[in-house]
Design a protein that fits this description.
With about 725 residues, the protein is of the alpha+beta class. The chain contains 29 helices and 16 strands. The strands form 4 sheets. Strands 7-8-9-10-11-13-14 form a 7-stranded mixed β-barrel. Strands 5-6-16-15 form a 4-stranded mixed sheet, with helices on both faces. A two-stranded antiparallel sheet has the order 1-2. The termini are far apart.
Length: about 725
């Protein structure tokens, strides 16, 4: 083992603390500078600006922005789901008060720009702990702009990814230093870093539990007689317990005082302390979120079954971030390119062989590799997990670079080679950043529509019904409630909204919308009063209306004799053009038999832009075409008879009009050409009659059920009248 370590060793460097701080600052400034490329690229795009500032580019950002705004405005009067007690809004509100001359929009836009590159700090510190500070600098610079890490911390990506990796890395650094130095101060450093990390991101229990487990495993293999490591393990476990922060800090400080006062005499109590830490961890329920995450991302059930045995479609099946990804994308997201990824794997293995303490970082690597999964054993958890492997493999890649450099005798050639290799591994990531031109969540036209809606609603009282992708922005801009959003979109939650947007029976859609809102409010009230009813709100509806079969219940709400609950608030349907991109996913959640979980026949829906026209054919951008002579839709080699061709658009007076033509009485699809968007909707009969298509594309609505509130090219809003 010693021979291998000697073979893999590289010269140590121990620059001064001032130099180390300067290297951190340079890596951070490098990450900030590259994050400003996106600002430069979109600075002149008026449609991406609101209130004289670029808008953010992640839906979840509006969730945190809502919480921060509520803290600043009136923390005592907020929606039940507003995150006023979460870390990101608390930090944002603090910064907004500390820097009142910075607008709120500017603050949330640029927080990722500054916070994201802070990942360089623990990486440089880890490099210094191993005696390789310059290696840490190179790895820190790479990690700040690595493909996947950049994507989730770029300018405008205002989300809890800001410090989600940085704080656990600080805990890893404290563990490494503790193992190497055996000093009590690192006990409290581990505790503080872990507690801060879990306060910031409560979803990190799995990672911190794994770090503690790796410390124990490392000790048992390499240093089993070292009592300090068991002590460190106990502190890591105790800090991971899901208990109030004040109690966690108090217990950690009390334990530290005990070990510092008794010194060597305290060693006899180490196993009692570890046992107590395990007991506190288990009793606190910290293992529950770990099991939940394994169930969601590893075992991944296809259906959700509630207490009434209703079977809903599981949302994780439709989340792109939790889907399978090709190997080259997986590798590129971690290291920029599959070649540099493979080299990074080699370098990481070398680093761990030379410095076995780096085995403590395996939980980061494991979570990152979980994105790709293990064929035949573990399904891929999706691209979002790749960011965890970024810092460790960045260290491994630069370890390999410095190791190769160490074999060159001439200092000038060595430095030049290391610099050239470093630039080479940075290059594909910089290339990605330049071409990653992600738009803002909403454009200014859509935000203006929401601000018009805000003038008509009762804040914190009325509901806006739409798909969960738009839930957070709607809550932020209108202060209305929503049924589903980025954090509340389980299959049971999605079913009523999906049904209301896609069922051909508009009366059933209206009744389901009213039922969903009123039962959601009842559920909120029951939670506040400590009287939680079991099962989904659909199960509660069925129970109250006397149905045991969901199919009969669905049939009943579409009949004129059905009486929905008395309205207690207004409900608005928000129907954006952009929903056409995901309509088939929207419909998926209600196009199934809740008694069996089996899906119904898949509907047909597509939309495309006008691409050109010749004497016989109208061409679309997605390769489809309309044969004007036969009245057929051409899908490759397939010819599908068109039932209706409808032209829709706005007159000069601003009024919406439609002009239908029947082409084939028995046609299988109907086509709507929206002149103002230069776009087509192509739908089978079921989808054509859905509320989304009828109300958005045709503005054809039942006046007894819906009242138009806003009509614009990109957004239509209706008020429910029952």
């Amino acid at each position: 083992m010693k021979k291998i370590q000697n073979l893999l060793s590289i010269p140590k460097d121990t620059p001064s603390l001032k130099t180390t701080a300067l290297l951190m600052a340079l890596a951070i400034l490098f990450g900030i500078a590259l994050r400003l490329i996106w600002v430069y690229q979109f600075s002149d795009a008026a449609e991406f600006h609101h209130n004289d500032q670029l808008m953010i580019n992640t839906n979840d950002g509006y969730f945190w922005a809502e919480g921060a705004r509520d803290i600043l405005e009136n923390p005592e009067f907020v929606d039940e789901l507003s995150p006023v007690n979460r870390s990101v809004p608390v930090i944002t509100a603090f910064l907004a008060k500390a820097f009142p001359f910075i607008s709120f929009e500017t603050l949330i836009l640029y927080m990722p720009t500054v916070f994201g590159p802070l990942i360089a700090i623990p990486i440089v510190l880890i490099g210094r702990a191993l005696g390789h500070t310059w290696m840490g600098f190179g790895a820190g610079a790479l990690a700040t702009i690595a493909w996947s890490y950049y994507n989730r911390t770029m300018t405008g990506y205002y989300d809890d990814d800001l410090l989600q990796i940085t704080l656990p890395l600080l805990a890893l650094w404290a563990l490494i230093w503790g193992v190497r130095q055996h000093e009590n101060r690192y006990l409290i450093a581990v505790s503080f870093a872990t507690i801060a990390s879990l306060w910031y991101y409560p979803g990190g229990y799995s990672l911190h539990f794994a770090l503690a487990f790796m410390l124990l495993l490392y000790t048992l293999i390499f240093d089993r007689k070292n009592h300090f490591n068991y002590k460190l393990f106990g502190f890591a476990l105790l800090a991971t317990a899901a208990i109030p922060i004040w109690l966690n800090l108090s217990l950690s400080l009390a334990a530290l005082a005990f070990f510092m006062l008794l010194r060597e005499k305290a060693d006899r109590f180490i196993w009692i302390f570890v046992a107590l830490a395990v007991a506190v961890l288990a009793y606190s329920g910290a293992l529950h979120p770990i099991i939940s995450q394994l169930n969601a991302y590893v075992f991944r059930p296809e259906v959700e079954v509630d207490t009434a045995q209703l079977q809903f479609f599981h949302v994780v099946q439709t989340v792109r971030e939790a889907g399978a990804i090709p190997f080259d994308v997986f590798a590129g997201r971690i290291s920029g390119h599959w070649v540099s990824f493979l080299l990074a794997c080699v370098g990481t293995a070398m680093l761990m062989a030379r410095h076995p303490v780096m085995l403590l970082s395996l939980p980061f690597v494991g979570l990152g590799f979980l994105a790709y999964g293990v064929p035949g054993l573990i399904p891929p958890a999706g691209l979002r997990f790749t960011i965890y492997a970024v810092p460790v493999l960045a260290l491994g890649l630069f370890y390999l670079i410095f190791w190769v450099g160490s074999k060159i005798g001439d200092p000038k050639i060595r430095i030049g080679l290391v610099a050239l290799a470093g630039a080479a591994v940075l290059a594909p990531n910089i290339h990605h950043i330049w071409h990653y031109q992600v738009p803002t969540v909403f454009n200014s036209h859509e935000v203006n529509a929401l601000e018009d809606l805000k003038k008509q609603i009762t804040p914190r009282h009325d509901y806006t019904l739409t798909w969960w992708d738009y839930g957070y922005p709607i809550r932020y801009y209108t202060k209305s409630k929503v049924l589903i959003d980025g954090g509340k979109h389980a299959g049971a939650d999605n079913f009523p909204v999906s049904f209301a947007l896609s069922t051909p029976n508009h009366l059933a859609a209206a009744n389901m919308a009213r039922l969903a809102v009123e039962y959601t409010e009842r559920d909120f009230k029951a939670r506040r009063e400590g009287e939680r009813r079991g099962g989904s709100i659909v199960a509660q509806m069925m129970e109250d209306y006397g149905f045991s079969d969901s199919n009969r219940f669905i049939e009943a709400i579409g009949q004129a004799s059905f009486r929905p609950p008395e309205p207690t608030r207004d409900i608005y349907l928000y129907l954006p053009y952009r929903m056409a991109d995901i309509y088939q996913t929207v419909e998926l959640f209600s196009n199934l038999d809740l008694m069996t979980g089996r899906h119904g026949p898949q509907s047909f829906f597509a939309h495309s832009r006008f691409a050109g026209e010749d004497g016989r054919y109208i061409q679309m951008q997605n390769g489809m075409a309309i044969d004007k002579q036969s009245g057929d839709l051409l899908l490759g080699e397939q010819q599908v008879p068109i039932r209706y061709f409808i032209t829709a658009g706005y007159r000069n007076d601003g009024r919406y009009h439609t002009q239908p033509q029947q082409l084939n009485r028995g046609g299988q699809v109907s086509i709507i050409f929206m002149q103002h968007l230069n776009a087509f909707f192509i739908a089978d009969q079921r989808t054509f009659n859905s509320p989304y298509v009828q109300l958005f594309a045709l503005e054809n609505y039942d006046a007894d059920l819906f009242e138009p509130v806003l009509s614009s090219p990109l957004v239509k809003i209706y008020r429910l009248k029952r």
